[in-house]
Design brief:
Pdz3 Domain, elongated, six-stranded antiparallel barrel, Thrombin, subunit H, seven-stranded antiparallel beta sheet, alpha+beta, 11 helices
Length: about 500
């Protein structure tokens, strides 16, 4: 036997040993991961560790009422005068007042005394108290609130309390079917632990512009609001906020604000006392199949720009009404909620690439984002004057140019000019699409119109093509939207 063959034979036991150890480690990891994915034997250790960081939120609000509420009136010196003197808790101004209290939940997010809860738990409160597991009650200062996401941040000075904080987790890594645990103060009962799974992700419950709720079947009831939703690593992946229930009690459908949304809001509230969201400066709507056909799109992916205020970042970068936003900062946007969240979570002043669909081509514009909170205080409107009325009936609508009489009839501001809908044919498609008298027509098939003749001329051109619908940009008040009307109907 050669030396090489002898060496190989001698090495065989070592090779088998290495392979055996490798298989053992792999099997151990597999069993461990399988056990981790299964139902835990108990939540007790986790609950014991996390409960000290979960607090009760108690608020007091002084409600004033100027009405005397049927208080009996007696002349001076009457025997009953003193008896009814303080009836209803009258203050110095003669107003009745009562103290309204409410209860909720919260959690300590750092040992410096920051406490997170829901905005609706402390909204309008004159006094806010944080109550710990051992009954210690301390006054809390309001750091900042964000009604749009229903988040509030409090600060406490708890010198006599050993503060225990819980860490944020990454809600984006949580999956439907994962085990979760909620701790809160349902019905004012005090620290209560419930458990369940993540039932769904990305829920829109129409509570605000940035809805992206985690749905869970862990029992959440009145008083749980503001409490934490934990993963099995003891990290906060949600803030329990709302329930779906016809009875007011839990039926296994609860909603939590995801931590990835909450973390950024909390950071801004702590740093600025308010949110500072990015602002693109567009009025947007989802793309329907009819709109996609009119725009030459193959599907309904993307967000249609229905309006562009002249003082906004989008206008300055060259984005126009009728553009379809396909990507924002390298991320595809399929609907308005996705775009709104993406813009809001981007830093003010950031330069962002926006991919658009315009006139059958894909183009890119770079936008420097503004600040939403500042923009919300400003109004923008444009137009030109027109004195001579024009009338026309098209696609189930009676249109006219604005005259002083029309302006007075529909209570239009002086800035509104152009073409106005004055009547809608009953049963027409325009009526079905909820176009109403008083609506202003800004564009027809992406072409600006300022007179009734402009509308008629553009429609005439479209009728000579094979298009089955026409896009109209409609403004009502401060809001604009595109509507597709069939050209095959009268």
């Amino acid at each position: 036997m050669s030396k090489k063959e002898k060496a190989t034979v001698q090495d065989m036991p070592k090779t088998y040993l290495t392979m055996g150890l490798t298989l053992f480690v792999m099997l151990t990891l597999f069993v461990y991961s399988a056990a981790a994915r299964g139902a835990p034997e108990s939540f007790a250790d986790l609950a014991e560790k996390l409960s000290p960081a979960v607090v009760n939120i108690s608020t007091t609000q002084i409600v004033k009422n100027e009405r005397t509420a049927n208080k009996p009136q007696f002349p001076p010196g009457h025997p009953f005068e003193d008896f009814f003197k303080d009836f209803g808790g009258k203050n110095k101004k003669g107003e009745k007042e009562r103290r309204a209290t409410s209860l909720g939940s919260g959690f300590v997010i750092d040992t410096d005394g920051l406490v997170i809860t829901n905005n609706h738990v402390i909204d309008g409160a004159d006094e806010i108290f944080v109550i710990f597991q051992d009954g210690t009650k301390v006054s809390a200062e309001l750091v900042g609130t964000d009604p749009k996401t229903d988040i509030a941040v409090l600060r406490i000075e708890a010198e006599d309390v050993d503060l225990v904080a819980v860490p944020w987790g990454n809600s984006d890594k949580s999956r439907v079917g994962d085990w979760v645990m909620a701790i809160g103060n349902p019905f004012g009962l005090g620290g209560t632990v419930t458990a369940g799974i993540i039932s769904a992700r990305g829920r829109d419950i129409r509570s605000g512009p940035y809805d992206d709720y985690i749905q869970t079947d862990a029992s959440i009831n009145k008083g749980n609001s503001g409490g934490p939703l934990f993963n099995m690593d003891g990290q906060v992946i949600g803030i329990n906020t709302a329930i779906f229930s016809q009875s007011g009690g839990s039926i296994g459908i609860g909603f939590s604000i995801p931590s990835q949304l909450a973390k950024n809001v909390v950071k801004q509230l702590v740093e600025y006392g308010q949110t500072r969201r990015g602002w693109l400066g567009v009025v947007i709507q989802n793309v329907t199949e009819e709109l996609a056909e009119g725009l030459g799109l193959e599907n309904t992916d993307g967000v249609l720009v229905a309006g562009v205020p002249e003082d906004g970042p989008a206008f300055k970068s060259g984005i126009k009404a009728g553009d379809v936003i396909l990507e924002f900062d390298g991320k595809e946007v399929g609907e308005t909620r996705e775009l709104s969240r993406a813009v809001a979570e981007t830093d003010v002043g950031a330069d962002v690439d926006v991919d658009l669909w315009r006139n059958g081509k894909r183009i890119t514009k770079t936008v420097t984002l503004g600040e939403l909170e500042k923009a919300e205080t400003r109004l923008a409107s444009t137009g030109s004057s027109s004195e001579k009325a024009q009338l026309a009936e098209v696609l189930g609508m009676r249109l006219t140019t604005i005259t002083p009489k029309v302006r007075e009839q529909f209570k239009l501001s002086d800035e509104v000019e152009g073409v106005i809908v004055v009547d809608i044919e009953e049963g027409s498609e325009a009526a079905e699409k909820e176009i109403r008298p008083g609506d202003q027509i800004l564009e027809v098939q992406l072409k600006p119109v300022s007179t009734v003749n402009d509308v008629k001329a553009t429609l005439k051109d479209i009728m000579g093509t094979d298009r089955k619908s026409v896009l109209m940009l409609i403004r009502r008040g401060l809001n604009s939207r595109f509507v597709a009307l069939s050209t095959e109907k009268k």
